[in-house]
Every structure is written in C-alpha cells, then in structure tokens.
Design a protein that fits this description.
By secondary structure, the protein is an alpha/beta fold. Helix content is about 30%, strand content about 25%. Bound molecules: adenosine monophosphate. Adenosine monophosphate binds near residues 369, 391, 494, 503 and 508. This is Propionate--CoA ligase.
Length: about 625
Amino acid sequence: MSDYQEFHRRSIEQPEAFWGAEAARIYWHKPYTQVLQYDNPPFRQWFAGGETNLCYNAVDRHLAERAEQAALIHVSSETGAEQSYTYRQLYEEVSRFAAIMQAQGVGKGDRVLIYMPMIPEAIFAMLATVRLGAIHSVVFGGFASASLATRIEDAAPKLLVTADAGMRGGKVIAYKPLVDEAMELAGAAAADKVILVNRGLAEAPMMKPGRDLDYATLREQHWHDRAGVEWVESNHPSYILYTSGTTGKPKGVQRDTGGYAVALASTMEYIYGGKPGETYFSTSDIGWVVGHSYIVYAPLISGMATLVYEGLPIRPDPGIWWQLVEKYRATVMFSAPTALRVLKKQDPEWLHKYDLSSLRALFLAGEPLDEPTAEWISGELKIPVLDNYWQTETGWPMLTVCNGVQPLPTKLGSPGLPVYGYNVKLLDETTGEEVPVGEKGVIAVIPPLPPGCMSTVWRQDERFVNTYFSLFQDRKVYSSFDWGVRDADGYFTILGRTDDVINVAGHRLGTREIEEAVSGHAAIAEVAVVGVHDTLKGQVPQAFAVLRDPSVLKDPEKKAALEKEVISKVASQLGAIANPARVYFVNQLPKTRSGKVLRRSIQALAEGRDPGDLTTLDDPSGLEQVRDAVQS
Ligand code: AMP
C-alpha cells in the first residue's frame, strides 16, 4: 500500500482521529465536544459544540504575525486598477464593512446577497458577512435579473450588496438596473437595503430613497467603526451558494463554518502546497464555488496573498496572466480548462516572455480537462498540472493527486484518486453494487461526507435527502450525478453527467432553467435544450423549439430574427452564459409514448451521433425534424 493509500484509508476508517488532528489548523474560540456527530444520517455535524469564525481565521488571526504582508492583490485589466491590501488593511476594511452592515440591522443568521464584479469590496463584503455570523449568498455577476430574483426569493436577504457596473472586454455592464428589476420580481422577499459600490462606470445609477445606500458615503460615516467577531457554532451556516440541477429551480447549497475552514486549510498543504506569505492566483470568479474556496477562504486562512483578477485572459494581451504570475511571484495557480484552451490558441511566445519560475503547480477544475490541453500546458510550464474534480456541493476536491501527501504520477484524462475524507465508489445505476475496474458507474460517496461539504439544501432538508441520497434507496449514499470509470491503479475518469445539467466553460447550467427562459418568449409553444459538444467551451446549449405559429418558418428573415430574439430573451433573463448557441425551430419534439422529451436522443443527433434506443419513441417524425434541423 502506498503512503497515500494508507493516508486515505486512515481518513475513511478513523475519521474522528484523522479530522481531530486536522482541526488544529484553525483557531477555535471554544473547543468542540465531538469531532463527528452522526446520529441522524445523512446529516452530520463536524466539530459539534466548537465555536469559531471564518473571518477571524481568514483575517484577524494573521494580524500578530503578518499584519504588513499582502493579503489581497486586486488587478483589473478592464479599468487598469491595481491595488494591494495588507492583512492590517484587509482587517480594517472588513471590520468597517461589518460595522456598516450591523448599522443596517444585519446580525447572526441574516442573509446578505452579494451581486458584484471582481472588485476588492466584493471580498470585503463576504468576509464582513461571516464576521457577523450572517450568511452570504454570492450570485455570479454574469447572471441576469430572473436568475437573481429566484435567488433573492429563496434566500430572503436582509441586505443586498452590489456595484454600479462590471466590465468585460472593455464593455460596461450595468448591474444596478438588473438589481432593481430582480428586487421587483422578488416581491416580499426583496432585501430591505441595498448598498451600492459606485465605481463610476455606469451613468448615475438610480438610487431608491430609503432603500439604496452609497458605500463610499457609509464608509466615510463609519470610518472609525470596527465590528467585532461573532463566534458561531461550527455547524452554523457560513454561506448559501445556488447551483443548477434537474429542476428549473436552483438549489441553495448550504455550507458549515468550522468543517469548511478545517477542510480548506488541509487542502492547502495536501493538495495545493501553498505556504504562508506566498501568492495564490485563482482566475475564477467569486460567483462560483472555486472563487469561494480558492480565491477567498483557503488562501486567506492559510496566510497567503490572494490575487484577484477582473478581466479576460487575453486582454490587454494573452500574456496578462503570466505577467501577473511573474510580478507577484505566484506559487500556486488555479484556473479552468476553457481558459487554457483559449490561451492555447494564442502565440506561445506570450508564455515564454515572462519568468514563471515561482510557479510550482497549476490546478484546473470545473469541467473535463482534455488531453491535448493538459499535454500542451504541462509541456510549456514544465510543472505539475493537476486536474481537480469536485462540485459546488463538496466545496473542495473529491478526486485529484495529493502531491502534498505523496507525489504520485498523474495520468492524462484523469483527475486522479479519491481525495482523503471521501469514500468514493463507482456504483451500478440500477443495482447500487460497485462496478468492476474499467466499467462505467455513478460516482458516489459513502457517507458521512467529510467536513466542509454541503450541510443541506437551504431550508429544504427533505430536498437535500431526496436529491442526493436517494439514487440507491436502501444504501443512502451520496450521488454526484456524474458517470465515471476507474482503472486498475484506482485512477478515475469522468464521463459526463447522469442528469440534465450541462457544463459551459466550466459553468454548470440546468437545461430546464434555459428552457423556462426560452418558453417565456410569446412565439414559443414548447422547447428542449440540450448541451452540445464544443471544442472551446466543452459544451454549449442548443435549443429545439416548437412555434405557436409555424407559418413564420416560411420566411427565412423572420425565422432568423426570431432566433435572435429568443437568444436575447435568454440573455436578459439568465445572463449571456446561458445563451443557446443555436435555436432550431421544429414542428414537433421527439417524445416517448408517455410524453417525455427524449433529450438524450436530441443531443446525440446534434452531436452527429447515433440517437440510441428508440423503442419508446412515440412518433419518429419528431426525431427526423431534429435531424433535418441540425443538418440544414
Ligand atoms: P460545479 O458545481 O458548478 O462546480 O460543477 C460540478 C460539475 O462539473 C461536476 O459534477 C462535473 O460534472 C463537472 N466537473 C467539475 N470538475 C471536473 C473535472 N475536473 N473533470 C470533469 N468534470 C468536472
């Protein structure tokens, strides 16, 4: 048995001893009474009775030793802003922001919704929220008003923090009008107050008297105010992060506090190899789980400087990320395969222009890492390139190679082995039995889930159990909704989702959400959205829509105009990331006799593959129409 196998075995067979030792990595205001409380499976409580605070561990704890060291470095290639904050400055900004929130009535357990571009204030707001024992819900800035509204409705925040605008590729994207629209849509659940960080990008944002407050003014008013830390029990929720599933309604993934801090701190040693005082550069966005864990909490809990970047990887030129690695001597970099595929298309000289000797490893996550991209970037950087497989639900990697425990070889196309704490199995979908080596199965985790994984679905315990723990009724194991296969050395390969979730450039989208947005267009009677393979983004959504009035199809101009209209409808409701690459119009969708739309067959045809078993098909002409549409 290798050292790593032994390490992993111990984490599974003796979880209390294993995690009890790991818990020493963070500060506990009050010691826990039990490492693991597991009397109500699948719910579990890690470090029950212990009191801590995420913000204290990320900020205050470092003041004694590293007050003057950089904590947050912000670079915007969009506005040209570049600013560094030491741990002392971060403490001041965060405790002041927390005081501002407190003055607006925010306290323990209240929700604060954060809808922000990648600016320092977004991170101050996250840390200020957890400082007060309040719960943040960050909504990705690329989502539009309808997506924002469903999240406001579910989280019912007391406060919403936003900015006048974001910027992407030199284009200003106004946020405030979307917030106003979403607040209207959310009705009674709308936040009492909105704090707006005015970057001066959008023209004079509308401020609703009595509700909307200007951050700069509040910051002046509260200049000398500092809010203290609210100690919370380890299982107190730190945040809610919405993610897409099979239904049109996103799920609020609820995360704990103590377990999350411990798990993240452990990964910095065992997976990432980042050390205090070094710079961690994650190119993700705070709207995603990678941003929560590896832009904000893990680097800061570990006493590192986190490099926060606003902009595209190729602006002002394709060397920008490498230039930042050189300038800030980043030792760990975390990105997504899509971004690397974009960079791979550029002149390799951009990579050779900079001194990248500080960089020890590159981590990629969020979507399958294709072999050509992995091979290209490892060859260029000549450092380990590690594929991390995980999900919003888990909060930290489930499969990878833990070089901090034992350097083991990587295999192209595979994220690697189960990470310590995760008892990962590949199970047969129908029997629930483990599948043999080389055979496809559902990636499942035998509970208890390790510290830091989702506690429940926000305010829907039943949905948590029904969604994740009922694939195999009697066994009550956690289903990832991903297919995988394992080789004789135990290395996993991910084969795609078992549900209707698609992955566009590393972003998880539910096809049902897009379908709902498309159906919102008055001309559409029915629609099916599927994810279709794309060489750059991994997958893109394509819509197959049935019109109320098919006569439109006779006029090619009207048809093209309608396609554009439908796409912009999706953009205005959900955000441009959900835009269908194409909208095909058909007279009928292929369905089973029981009326279920055959999405998998549509997807197969759209990708030029065989549509598979069609014995349950009601009327073959639906499929013919899809075939004709994609071939036209
Ligand atoms: P999200 O919750 O948005 O991070 O999406 C999680 C999903 O993305 C997983 O369930 C997988 O389908 C996919 N995913 C994440 N990381 C990887 C990876 N390294 N390789 C393949 N698929 C991945």
